[in-house]
Amino acid sequence: MATFTFPRQTAFYSGKVRDVYTIGKEVLVMVASDRISAFDVILPKPIPFKGQVLNQIAAYMLKATEDICPNWLMEVPAPNASIGKYCQPFKLEMVVRGNLTGHSWRTYSSGGRQLCGVAMPEGMKENDFFPAPIITPTTKASKGHDEDISKEEIIAQGLVSTEDWAILEKYTLAIFERGKALAAARGLVLADTKYEFGKIGNTIYLMDEIHTPDSSRYFYAEGFDEKQVKGERQRQLSKEFVREWLIANDFMGKEGQTVPAMSSEWIDTISKRYIELYETLIGKPFEPQVLSDEEIFVMIVEALGKLPSL
After folding, report:
1. Helix, strand, coil content of the chain in percent (nearest 5)
2. Nearest to 164 by CA among 230, 106, 94
3. How many CA atoms lie within 13 A of 1 on its CB side?
4. Counting beta carbons within 10 angstroms of the beta carbon of residue 174, is it exposed (0 to 12), middle (13 to 18) or buried (19 or more)?
5. Which of 17, 33, 187, 246 has the smallest set of CB atoms within 10 Å of its CB?
6. In-domain check, residue 191
7. What angle do CA 172, 271, 300 make, to 5 degrees?
8. Strand, helix or coil for residue 269
9. 25 in Cβ contact with 86 (< 8 Å)
10. Is 189 contained in some domain?
11. DSSP of 201-218, one letter per residue?
12. Separation of CA 153 from chain center
């Protein structure tokens, strides 16, 4: 994917998946690439249509939660691009977990009963529901790995004020409840996810993407209880299957480890899983759009030209 230069552009940042352009001082353009990352490492080959899937799910979910919390999104000018308000970001991710899975299960199965200062009950099995969702924040690292951090450490380090934390906590739990309801309506369980927030003046905004397969873990609801009783693996739609493949091939992003080779068949499988989640979650067929970099650039420039602030 090409790197663009837009009118009035003042900054550019290339993240693990998104390229972020600052326009003036008030607007961001986010272009979702087909890059895929795991364990905070960008894997060597792109996944066809992944950027379009992420961008369109995020836009759908931001629209479906805008009554709970203001969000950054203003326009979706291209299949893989969004335009929105520039916010001063909080340097943490609000990770919220409804089920004991992924990182929380790895911590639990190794004997840990606390995660980010939050107690996890005894006697739980992998993928069990927590009695109530728990918030387990991480620092937002510009490079390298994000780190677990507790509410107390966040406030003590001045990353977030006590007053802002109360709002972040309220928004996080409310948006997660909405996400669970949206997922349940489509036969899915939203097991865990993460949100990023920022401020414009004194107002807190929800930023970036939400409830996508990159930021969330979904299980199929059908047969979930029976599989838990029998101790069977849950059917899921998320990026976790990529992480599991990497772990099985001795890669967890640690120093000295090498990313395993990705065959064309495996890349096609990943692409189809992303599309499957889109169609399951949104409830309509995915319409792949193949556009040139020039066409995407023109769409974004035209949309920027119509914004009243520009």
Report:
1. 30, 25, 40
2. 94
3. 28
4. middle
5. 187
6. yes
7. 70
8. helix
9. yes
10. yes
11. TTEEEEES--SSTTTEEE
12. 23
> What pLDDT does residue 309 have?
62
Task: Name the residue among 229, 208, 217 with its Cα closest to residue 277.
Answer: 217
Phi, psi of 209 (to 5 degrees): -100, 155
Domain assignment present for residue 272? The answer is: no
Residues in the chain: 310
Q: What CA–CA distance (Å, rounded) separates 278 from 159?
A: 34
The residue with tokens 């909080």 is 90
The pLDDT assigned to 143 comes to 58
Looking at residue 238, what is its pLDDT?
A: 78
Distances (CA, A) of 42 to 15, 39, 143, 193, 227: 9, 8, 12, 20, 33
Q: What crossing angle do the helices spanning 264-282 and 50-64 adopt, rounded to 10°?
A: 20
What's residue 144's pLDDT?
56
Q: How many domains does the chain have?
A: 1
Contact 235, 254 (CB under 8 A): no
pLDDT in tens, 254-271: 888 999 999 999 999 999
Ranges under pLDDT 50 in the chain: none
AA identity, residue 128: D
Task: State the CATH number of the domain containing residue 164.
Answer: 3.30.470.20
Verdict on whether the full-model pTM lies above 0.85: yes
Whether 291 maps to a domain, the answer reads no
Residue 40: the pLDDT is 81
Q: What range does the domain containing 226 cover?
A: 89-241
